[in-house]
# Entry
Amino acid sequence: MLSGTCVSTVAIAGELSPVALAAVVGAGLVVSGVTLARRAGEAAPPVGRRGLPWLGWLAAAVAWETATLAHGGLPALSDLADPVLAHPLARAAATACWLAAGAWIATRPRSPRRPG
# Structure
């Protein structure tokens, strides 16, 4: 229900609208609250070396965004995504993927209850 409402709101309201922002922030807060309440991922095994490629992608994104702040001529990642997300169906698909990632995080294993 929440995901359908958020996806349709973002698709209909248009990019960079206050209504779309409120829908995304609201859904993010709900998923974050559920995740924290369930203590999701607490019993998940450590990522280890499997996380290094993701750390590399994150470092590259942070470096790019930092460079755009330093040099006004470089486009930010959001500026590069704007042409792709201009179509309502693409925006809806991107929002659905974002919500699916949040749901995956929220349903990760938690620690088993200890007796006693």
